[in-house]
Amino acid sequence: MTQHSHSHPAGFKGFFYEIFVPHSHDAADSIDDAMEAHSEGIRALKISLVLMLGTTVVQAVIVTFSGSVALLADTIHNLSDALTAVPLWIAFVLSRRVATRKYTYGFNRAEDLAGLFIVLMIALSSIVAAYEAIDRMINPRPMDNIGWVIAAGVIGFLGNEAVAVYRIRVGKKIGSAALVADGVHARTDGFTSLAVVVGGIGVVLGFPLADPIVGLLISAMIAVLLIGTVRSVGRRLMDGIEPELVDRAEHALQHLAEVESVESVRLRWVGHRLHGDALVRTSATSLAEADHLAEDAEAAVKKRMPNVDEMTVRVMANVR
């Protein structure tokens, strides 16, 4: 297997980079059937949606009798996270549809549009959380049942982290940047829930402003972490590709004895599936040999990268 041709941050920074900006190129080693990938993605969304709605309901009940603005901000964010599963679910269902004369490449791009919607929802939740925190600073209100608020924060963290791990794992497995982004969204919710715990402890220690201050910090943290998700989803929309996937395709082509050189390789994500083309040079002297090589080359790439749906290989030969 070829090594990654681009580097990731190392050390402490790399640890947080992998937590909050995971990438999905590992899919090249996993599911090779498009329908199976769609089904696994939908199953992940169903399970995580139920978990997130349950977490949100518990937190909303505690908000009503505690008056915690930090917990309210966290609950709003958790609700937005749960709702982002709906458009992504629709996108996975659309991806199952066969191509038509109007949409000749199929409907897999719906998944990338859902990823953009998720980015917008994360941004909106950050704005709402900031507004509520600032309002509570200007118009202070007492916070009751602090023990329950702290418990709700812990519940929020556990629920969100479980959903995040599941979504990111499945997203990486099937190559879905949108599902990975949704997992990152859940993970930010989890850490903001821990911030609610900190705010509650601050109030217990005699610092009432700790609650709205933490609510404001939550919105700021969401905005900062949004940058990595924007890059990931934006790269997909711009047909960006992880360089190591190009390396892997080139490696598969170069190992064919008939290939003298690989002139170019292009890949792009369409939803969570890969499409691409390549140009190779050979010393073949007949059209039959060139055609046979093109078929072998396509098969070699698909074997090496199971989630490649389409690979068109052109052959430059010394045909007489």
UniProtKB/TrEMBL annotation:
Biological process according to GO: intracellular zinc ion homeostasis
Topology term for the membrane: Multi-pass membrane protein
Domain Cation efflux protein cytoplasmic: 242-314
Lineage, top ranks: Bacteria, Bacillati, Actinomycetota, Actinomycetes, Micrococcales
GO cellular component: plasma membrane
Predominant place of localization: membrane
Subcellular location: Membrane
Phosphoprotein listed as a keyword: no
Name of the protein described by the UniProt record: Cation transporter
Pfam families linked to this entry: Cation_efflux, ZT_dimer
GO molecular function: cadmium ion transmembrane transporter activity; ferrous iron transmembrane transporter activity; zinc efflux antiporter activity
Family indicated by similarity: Belongs to the cation diffusion facilitator (CDF) transporter (TC 2.A.4) family.
Domain Cation efflux protein transmembrane, chain residue ranges per copy: 45-238
Transmembrane residue ranges: 49-70, 76-94, 114-134, 146-168, 189-207, 213-230
